Amino acid sequence: MTQTSGETVFDPADEAGQIEVLEGMARRLIAGTFSAAFTLDAEGQAQMVEALYAQIGRKAADIIRARAQAKAQ
Q1: Which domain holds residue 25?
Q2: Total domains, the chain
Q3: pLDDT, greater one: 38 or 40
Q4: C-alpha distances in angstroms, 25 versus 38, 41, 68?
Q5: Is the C or the N end of the chain the one with fewer CB within 10 Å?
Q6: Which has more confidence, 31 or 7?
Q7: Residue 67: is it exposed, middle or buried by C-beta count within 10 angstroms (0-12/13-18/19+)?
């Protein structure tokens, strides 16, 4: 998947790489949640989790849209 003029273009050859990116984000979310429990207050933890889930959601949505666009071509 590549970025061109702000639009995500799906590259079938890089599908595994995109899945690895999502897995890495999920691991950061899990690790960050546990480590934040020791350093952040409840509101800080909540904001961090919200931000990480938003990143994962945007990346997953980009992959879905780009796949659909690639199939339509």
Answers
A1: 2-72
A2: 1
A3: 40
A4: 20, 22, 22
A5: C
A6: 31
A7: middle
